[in-house]
Amino acid sequence: MTQYSFDTLTIHAGAAPDPATGARQIPIYQTTAYVFKDADHAARLFNLQEVGYIYSRLTNPTVQALAERVAALEGGAGAVCCSSGHAAQIMALFPLMGPGKNIIASTRLYGGTITQLGQSIKRFGWTTRFVDFDDLAALEAAVDDDTRAIFCESISNPGGYITDIPAVAKVADKVGLPLIVDNTLASPYLCRPIELGATLVVHSATKFLTGNGTVTGGVVVDSGKFDWSKSGKFPSLSEPEPAYHGLAFHPALGSMAFTFHSIAVGLRDLGMTMNPQGAHYTLMGIETLSLRMQRHVENTQKVAEWLEKDPRVTKVTYAGLKSSPWHGRMATVCPKGAGALFTFAVKGGYDACVKFVNNLKMFSHVANLGDTRSLVIHAASTTHRQLTEDQQIAAGASPEVVRLSIGIEDVADIIADLDQALAAATA
Ligand SMILES: *Cc1c(COP(=O)(O)O)cnc(C)c1O
After folding, report:
1. Is the CB of 157 under 6 A from ligand 1?
2. What kind and span of H or E run contains 136?
């Protein structure tokens, strides 16, 4: 499929007419299990000597089509679909981590991720150190012998800040660790982290990939480029895996080691599986990813420029604006646009923010983003609520800002709604 361009891959990657019926669209294989040809076939499948379907907690043809499509769009060797974006993050870390091991993560992340990495994973004996990823020396200094991964978002939620992925990847390379990039806000249409040096890419398919607020899902894509055997730090991949009758995944499977481990051990034992119906909706969404993202960034650029000029607004964080300190990173990280998510501050502070949100008519006040329709939320009291105020400010979710996710409606209607709500909020 590599001969096709990105836009063509959004429609054709991972898809072929159904061999049994000729169905042109990918069927929803709503089945739990698959009949083995005979006992020998069953044994070969369980030994990973032959690739095929056993049980839908592990693999399912509809879900597999989605995995192949996202892997193609990200330029990865393989991918595994999961039940949510948060599941994808755990699945990405699972083969790398162990009790006592740590992750170095950016301070600018989705609030749920800061809580997952900062608090909940302690129960596994894993810890996270949060560092400002613009300070590359601090990033490198935070790494120790127990560090197993470096984690950031390409474009970060909620402020739309752009991470200098090539620079961070260089540090990861120097210290011999995998770089995991959450590419949810950019989607592979805007940013291709693997080309910029990332090892693994994670997605919340809930957002732009599906694109219309119908699915909760996630994907982990592996570049296939990391040498899991070199440092001895990743025994689940480089040594005989006791959880899979002693198979040494990296020596046996090379660039597909991470993907096969994620299915054969990760999905098997953690069970964070995507369902075939959800995969189907995401496949349908991806068919229009390029068209949607074009309109998302076009609209967002116009809305951000309009807001920036408005005297009722004190700050707009969109990296597509020339005034943004992150604008210069677009050329290398996301040349086609800075995404559809940003925050802005209404004159009058927190109280004006609340009035503004309450007066919007077309915008939906929801805890979601990356929908065809325009969405609004006050991040500090919702998506980033579990954080301390210092963490909120570091993440770009300070109490006086509102987060917008700009949809693909007519931009004149989007601006008109913002205009009347601003008038009500600042009257
Ligand atoms: C929403 C989101 C997640 C979590 O995804 P879920 O599908 O809600 O589990 C992770 N990262 C980012 C950047 C997100 O916006």
Report:
1. yes
2. helix 136-142
